[in-house]
From TrEMBL:
InterPro entries per the UniProt record, alphabetical: LysR_HTH_N, LysR_subst-bd, WH-like_DNA-bd_sf, WH_DNA-bd_sf
Alphabetically ordered keywords of this record: DNA-binding, Transcription, Transcription regulation
Family affiliation: Belongs to the LysR transcriptional regulatory family.
Molecular-function annotations in GO: DNA binding; DNA-binding transcription factor activity
Protein name, entry field: LysR family transcriptional regulator
Pfam families the record matches: HTH_1 (PF00126), LysR_substrate (PF03466)
GO cellular component: protein-DNA complex
Keyword Transcription included in the entry's annotation: yes
Domain HTH lysR-type: 2-59
Length: 298
C-alpha cells in the first residue's frame, strides 16, 4: 500500500519543481526527500518526474497521478477531521430505545433537543421496544441507550441505570361522569366504580396499581384491560370506565377525558435510562449526560 507520507512529499516536489525548496517546505533534509520520491516511483513502476540539473518537472503520467493524489489527500484530511470529531463525540450515530412514556412525557424529545443544539451533526435512530427487548439490545450492542420502565438489577454485570422520571398518576374520568364535576375526590368516591386496567411494561405494574388502591381503602373493579394508556383514555372518553394515567401523558388526553389528582393513591410510573457499563464511544457518554446530568453539557 502506498505511504501517505510519500504522497505528501510527491505533491510538495511537484508544486515546487525543486527538491531543495520542497525539502525546506516540509522541514526535512533534501537527501531523505529524494530517497522517498525514488522509492515511490519504484513501488509504482512509474517515472513521475523528468530531472535536470536546473529543475525537476512532472512527466505526463506524473501530472495525471498528481491530480488523483491531491483528491486522495483531500479525502484523507477530511477523514482525519471526521475521526477527530467522532472522538470528541461531535458526530456519529446513536441508536436509542424507548417506551411510549419516554416520548409522551417529554423526556426523550427534550433530551434530543438539547443534543441537537450541542451536537447538530449527530444521526439518531429511535426504536420503540419493550423494556426487556431494550435491555437485551444494550447487551448485544444494537442499542446505545435505553429508556425503560424498570432498571437493570444492581448486580447486573453488563448494564447500569439511572432514574430520569417518577411520573405521578392522575385519575382519568369521562367528562360527563358525576365525579368529573367534583373538585375533591375521596377513596369512597371510587369504590364501586368500573375501572379500565392499563397493561404497562410488566405484570408488577398492574399489581402495584391494585395494591395502591387497597392501601387507599378500596378494591378496584377492573372490567376492561387496555394495551396502553392511550387506548385506556380512548375507552374512558367513550364512557366505558375510569383509569389511572401518568401525568406526563396529560397533554395528549383526547376530548371527553377529565383528569383529576388523587394524591392518596400513592402510585407513580418511573422511567429509567440504561446503558452498557463498557462505553467505547464518546457520543454515547454525551447523550447519557444529557439524560442524567443536563447541566454538564456545554
Amino acid at each position: 500500500m502506498i505511504d501517505i507520507r510519500q504522497l505528501r512529499y510527491f505533491v510538495a516536489v511537484a508544486e515546487e519543481e525543486h527538491v531543495g525548496r520542497a525539502a525546506e517546505r516540509l522541514h526535512i533534509s533534501q537527501s531523505p526527500l529524494s530517497r522517498q520520491i525514488a522509492q515511490l516511483e519504484e513501488r509504482l513502476g512509474l517515472t513521475l518526474f523528468e530531472r535536470s540539473q536546473q529543475r525537476i518537472r512532472l512527466t505526463r503520467d506524473g501530472q495525471t497521478f498528481l491530480a488523483e493524489t491531491r483528491a486522495l489527500l483531500t479525502h484523507a484530511n477530511r477523514l482525519e477531521s471526521l475521526g477527530k470529531r467522532l472522538g470528541r463525540g461531535e458526530e456519529g450515530g446513536l441508536c436509542i430505545g424507548y417506551i411510549e412514556n419516554a416520548m409522551h412525557a417529554g423526556v426523550l424529545p427534550n433530551a434530543l433537543r438539547v443534543l441537537r443544539v450541542n451536537r447538530p451533526n449527530v444521526h439518531v435512530a429511535l426504536y420503540n421496544l419493550r423494556s426487556a427487548e431494550q435491555l437485551e439490545g444494550l447487551r448485544q450492542r444494537s442499542l446505545d441507550i435505553a429508556l425503560v420502565s424498570e432498571p437493570p438489577t444492581e448486580d447486573d454485570p453488563d448494564l447500569l441505570g439511572f432514574q430520569v422520571l417518577d411520573d405521578p398518576m392522575l385519575l382519568a374520568l369521562p367528562e360527563h361522569h358525576p365525579l368529573a364535576q367534583q373538585t375533591v375526590l375521596t377513596p369512597a368516591d371510587l369504590a364501586g366504580q368500573e375501572w379500565i386496567g392499563v397493561q404497562h411494561q410488566n405484570v408488577a405494574s398492574r399489581e402495584n396499581f391494585v395494591s395502591a388502591c387497597i392501601r387507599a381503602g378500596f378494591t378496584p373493579d377492573i372490567r376492561m384491560e387496555a394495551t396502553g394508556p392511550f387506548t385506556a383514555m380512548a375507552l374512558v372518553a367513550s364512557g366505558l370506565g375510569i383509569a389511572m394515567i401518568q401525568k406526563g401523558l396529560s397533554r395528549n388526553a383526547p376530548p371527553g377525558v377529565v383528569l383529576r389528582e388523587v394524591p392518596w393513591i400513592s402510585l407513580t410510573r418511573p422511567l429509567w435510562a440504561a446503558w452498557h457499563r463498557i462505553n467505547l464511544r464518546p457520543l454515547v457518554e454525551t447523550f447519557r449526560k444529557v439524560l442524567t446530568e443536563p447541566e454538564s453539557i456545554d
